[in-house]
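[job 4471] stage=fold_predict status=RUNNING
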Amino acid sequence: MRPKLLGMTPVQLKEAALSVGLPAFTGGQLARWLYTRRARSFAEMTDISKAGREKLAAAFDLGVTLPSGCQVSRDGTKKYLFPVACSRAAGLDAYVESRPSELEESAVEAVMIPDEDRRTLCVSSQAGCRMGCTFCMTGRQGFHGHLSAADILSQLVAVDEAADLTNAVFMGMGEPLDNEENLLRAIEVMTAPWGFAWSPKRITVSTIGVLPALRRFLDGTRCHVAVSLHDPFPEERASLMPVQKAWAVADVVDLLRQYDFTGQRRVSFEYTMFAGVNDSVAHADALIRLLRGLECRVNLIRFHKIPDAPYETSPDLVMERFRDRVSRHGITCTIRASRGEDILAACGMLAGRHEQLKNKDENC
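[job 4471] inference complete, writing structure tokens
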């Protein structure tokens, strides 16, 4: 398997160029084509000689994978399907060191959400997920492997709206901090002056609360963080999210209290509402106690029905009363609008199934 150039730093790109007998300055040319011009093929790199491009193509994979399918929701949301070759071994070198037989062919989905002048891409970081949340279609399919930094970045480069993206949220398939090294490499490329040159304010990473990796993420980036909370009572949360047994949400909140979220960086908590499960006054009051004094936002999310899940979403009136009770105690609380539910693109519905997206839709 050839190493992928997408995701490499300028120093690594320079070394790649030198390894095939090209001048050192070719590394800078590669960086500009990959990250500024978002090239999708070596043929586009016209300031590199044809012979040089052929040498690079023989030794390296560019790393950009075009989507194999796309669906468009009636609300304008678009869901893209990407084929990937995943490694179960974590780490940046897993894809270079792994033999093809050690890689698992799979697929992931990315969702583009339009909203007035914003274009947000919901990015996947793993194929499947090993966190096992009972209400999430991704979690219920099991874990197939980590995405490389190139496969993460490729989603941002290969969608039709690549040039118009304003934000990225790592809320697609997988637990981003379970694939920490490749996530951080992708964020480095996205925010570096030699990369996409995005402000960290344009990036949000969602997590169920992988504590060791969460601390490193908070120390190493200025991106926003969104914590999947869903229930303030430990035993109830554990029945929804087995990760509670390893990393309790109270410990996650304690860690977050050590950081400053009063400026441009934000922390939010995602709270999916299940009728008769986590939507009572007692749950609202427990949530208020848990988050009291922390500058944050709570996003209430309607549960989107998935096969065989024993849950129903809370009625609108119940959600509104829950929101108002939390808000009255000084915690910003909103009900998130659902997007793309008709194409299984809403929260918790991504599965990466080829049969759902066999052919690219003519409207994409």
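[job 4471] summary: DSSP finds twelve helices and twelve strands in the chain.
[job 4471] exit 0
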